[in-house]
Amino acid sequence: MTTDSLLDLLADIAGTNEVRKNAQLALYDTQVLDSMRTVDLILALDERYGINISPAEFDREAWATPEKFVADVQSRKSAA
After folding, report:
1. Which domains occur in the chain, in start order?
2. Residue range 42-61, pLDDT digits in tens
3. In sequence order, which residues have a C-beta less than 8 Å from that of residue 75 and are 6 or more positions away?
């Protein structure tokens, strides 16, 4: 699981390549991610990488930007 593969997944779910170009893009403030896309992303992380994130564990601020999303997912994988 590389930074590029996580950004590819994020871009696929979000429907924009902007997440690859701008690590500081405000994902929720710009509506790149919404609640439905977040659920899709959580399911895809479990399916592709075996990272299970329950809604109770989800912290929107931890995924506020592509950079934060990658860091959060990689830290979850390391902790598992």
Report:
1. 3-79 (1.10.1200.10)
2. 999 999 999 999 878 888 99
3. none
